[in-house]
Amino acid sequence: MVCSFLHICAHHIKNKVLNRQLARSGETVSRNFHAVLNAVLRMHTILLKEPEPITEDSTDEHWKWFKNCLGALDGTHIRVQVPAHDKPRYRTRKNEIAMNVLAVCTPKMQFIYILPGWEGSAADGRVLRDAISRRNGLKVPQGFYYLCDAGYTNGNGFLAPYRGQRYHLNEWRDGYQPTTPQEFFNMKHSRARNCIERCFGLLKARWKILSEKSFYPIKTQCRIISACCLLHNYIRSEMAIDPMESEVGEMNNTPPEADPEPEFISHVEPSDAWIAWRDNLAHQMFESWQQS
User: What is the layout of strands, in order, in the sheet containing 145-147?
Assistant: First the structure.
């Protein structure tokens, strides 16, 4: 029954012109669309994935160095329709009118947290600061962290790569090998954090409404984005093999572990201790690789 329900919801979300296809009035389609949308959003406590840290005994080649890591986060731009007077705020550096959506996912590419609504011109770091300051926002327990790209601050709870060093996966092709601890760290970081990029790729490939011009109000567009993320999680949890998986690469696996009553990180800022910890980790990784 749940599967059928979500299939109907997906059908409603993907089709803006159901009134023509099913010979129903626009009012009927709109009423049912919002009813289904609301029903999916009410299931967020069930469909959002609980974070599970990487354990000490992990043998996953992508993640084994990142003990206590909970997953990866990043922002993505999703094109939206806004009134003319709002367009300057939503205009991205690529000159698109879009929303900056922050998302956090597990190594298995299931969403942990989604924050749509910020204008396309907003910096990723600003969106993240808003996320962790909200009462029901992103919770990062002390001692745990997420992988993020160089657009974010390398600080407690958020592990960023070294700037000014090779990082992106295409820079490690053609047999190029890292020559410094910083390059090796960046290579491993990039391969692990790539799960959020593949997650975005799957999301946008599956739900065409996220890549086409929408005529819904901005608040409804935010709700549609959240619903698509929840449906993505449902599909990932119910299907042993995702038919779209080959388009974005292979999944990683992470063993589960619980955290009882954590104290959460409440701000993002660089610290000498965190920078020293990253340097330490980079040297450990590089030395181990050289000895293997």
Answer: 111-119, 98-105, 69-79, 145-147, 158-159
CA distance 213 to 217: 12
Helix, strand or coil, per DSSP, at residue 147: strand
Contact 78/99 with Cβ under 8 angstroms? yes
Q: Is the separation of the CB atoms in 150 and 160 below 8 Å?
A: yes
Element (H, E) at 47: helix 44-47
CB 81 within 8 Å of CB 111: no
258 — pLDDT class (breaks 50, 70, 90)? very low
Q: Within a 13 Å sphere around the CA of 273, how many CA atoms are in the beta-carbon half?
A: 4
Give the whole-angstrom CA distance, residue 148 versus residue 247.
22
Q: Are 148 and 74 in contact (CB under 8 A)?
A: yes
> What mean pLDDT do residues 164-172 have?
74
Phi, psi of 200 (to 5 degrees): -60, -40
Helix (H) and strand (E) counts for the chain?
9, 5
In the numeric block, which tokens belong to residue 258? Answer: 């619980």
49 phi and psi angles, rounded to 5 deg: -85, 140
CA–CA separation, 43 and 49 (whole Å):
12
Ranges of each domain in the chain: 43-291
Neighbouring-strand partners of residue 101: 76
CB burial of 196-218 (b: ≥16 within 10 Å; e: otherwise) equals bbbbbbbbbebbebbeeebebeb
Q: What is the model's pTM?
A: 0.82
Contact yes or no for 12/37 (Cβ under 8 A): yes
